[in-house]
Recover the amino acids of this structure.
């Protein structure tokens, strides 16, 4: 008779006692940290990876015939990108698709953001995505984005990331006089309209002495812009700190925006490292996931369909057959079990750091609402691929059944009639200004994507 150990399921910790794996993971994550520090917005993620792809022989789709062995990319409106390696087989045999999103919770500047109050100049903001507002006060912030001047000239903005740059800041109420604030719930303690970013305090040297006037003069002197140009700008505030190793053992990484660039980067590197194959392999960096995948750069658009149709049209393949025979990994993070907040989790079915990628059959909220719910056949297929390639994996879900929930782009992919399952790196403090993840899990995500493509 088999023993209990042989019969029962036990979650593994692959890095335990595996020095070779530890060294590979730590080395791999140096590249990841450079990416996460230099790609804090979707625009920056697209540009960062496009430069690497071009240096590795990728060409714009418009310059390709979509023939076997070609490496190509297509940029969707500056904020989403498709990378593909064309296989030797027909597209009607299906593709291997990995979709990750590269937008993260942040503070977007309003279209007329600049105002002055009590001798301080501020930017008005509108928060983006599901963030906890109280976490964004008393925090050094950087400014990222683009400004289009009245004549159409584009100006790229990145202020606060270099050591010599100034940073920006949102004030909080001192505890000495915060009685009324303490009486509010966490949700209501910091109203969205008070997330105003301090950007200066020196008045202009004239009779009126306006701080706002002085800031506008400085911006005009450096960038040649006027206040009107904010209306045609897209500017976002993100935490100014760079990624850091965490722990005496340096086994984890603390950084902004790991949801979901922590899955986008391994998908991209796996595509770069993959060998020639009969299957066409595609990586998509999607936008707008944090606000419902809306817009032309989000997965609720027809951008994936149109990209696949372009490939099929150039090769004479039938689009419907291509989709029906394809498989997709929705590469999105999982919520790692946090023992400090154990009451919110169902421990047995949660994902844990250092135990590999989280293969998530369903997400959703309260009754699986809004989720994809991958089939048993697909779960079996993907986990067998991982087992055959020594990829450590585990199951996962978003907390207790009635506690809340979450969604991913899997539902948008499923709407195309393409089989899809969620798979990603489990992280702690999801959607906080700084999130925490284990290096071994990040590297295991790279291995998972490689195995999927192979």
């Amino acid at each position: 008779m088999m023993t209990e150990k042989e019969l029962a399921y036990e979650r593994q910790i692959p890095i335990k006692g595996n020095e070779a794996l530890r060294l590979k993971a730590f080395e791999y994550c140096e590249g990841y940290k450079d990416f996460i520090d230099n790609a804090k917005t979707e625009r920056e993620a697209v540009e960062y990876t496009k430069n690497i792809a071009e240096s590795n022989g990728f060409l714009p789709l418009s310059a390709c015939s979509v023939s076997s062995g070609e490496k190509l990319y297509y940029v969707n409106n500056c904020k989403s990108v498709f990378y593909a390696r064309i296989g030797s087989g027909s597209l009607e045999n299906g593709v291997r698709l990995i979709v990750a999103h590269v937008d993260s919770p942040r503070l977007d500047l309003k279209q007329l953001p600049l105002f002055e109050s009590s001798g301080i100049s501020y930017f008005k903001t509108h928060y983006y995505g599901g963030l906890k507002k109280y976490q964004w006060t008393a925090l050094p912030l950087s400014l990222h984005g683009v400004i289009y001047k009245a004549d159409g000239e584009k100006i790229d903005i990145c202020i606060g990331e270099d050591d010599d740059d100034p940073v920006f800041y949102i004030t909080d109420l001192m505890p000495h006089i915060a009685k009324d604030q303490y009486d509010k719930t966490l949700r209501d303690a910091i109203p969205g309209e008070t997330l105003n970013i301090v950007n200066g305090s020196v008045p202009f040297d004239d009779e009126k002495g306006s701080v706002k006037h002085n800031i506008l003069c400085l911006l005009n002197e450096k960038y040649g812009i006027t206040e009107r140009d904010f209306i045609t700008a897209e500017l976002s505030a993100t935490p100014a700190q760079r990624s850091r190793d965490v722990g005496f053992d340096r086994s984890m990484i603390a950084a902004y925006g790991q949801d979901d660039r922590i899955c986008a980067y391994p998908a991209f590197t796996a595509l770069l490292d993959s060998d020639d194959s009969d299957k066409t392999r595609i990586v998509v960096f999607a936008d707008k996931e944090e606000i419902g995948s809306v817009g032309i750069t989000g997965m609720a658009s027809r951008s994936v369909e149109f990209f696949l149709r372009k490939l099929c049209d150039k090769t004479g393949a039938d689009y419907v057959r291509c989709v029906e025979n394809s498989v997709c990994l929705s590469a999105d993070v999982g919520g790692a079990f946090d023992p400090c907040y154990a009451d919110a989790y169902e421990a047995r079915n949660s994902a844990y750091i250092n135990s590999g990628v989280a293969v998530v059959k369903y997400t959703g909220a309260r009754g699986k609402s809004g989720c994809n719910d991958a089939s048993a056949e697909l779960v079996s297929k993907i986990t067998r691929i991982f087992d055959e390639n020594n990829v450590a994996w585990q199951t996962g879900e978003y907390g207790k059944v009635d506690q809340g929930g979450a969604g991913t782009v899997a539902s948008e992919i499923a709407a195309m009639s393409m089989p899809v399952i969620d798979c990603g790196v489990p992280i702690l403090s999801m959607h906080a200004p700084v999130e925490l993840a284990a290096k071994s899990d990040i590297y295991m995500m790279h291995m998972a994507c490689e195995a999927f493509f192979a």
Notes: The chain is about 30% helix and 25% strand. Residues 19-38 form the longest helix (20 residues).
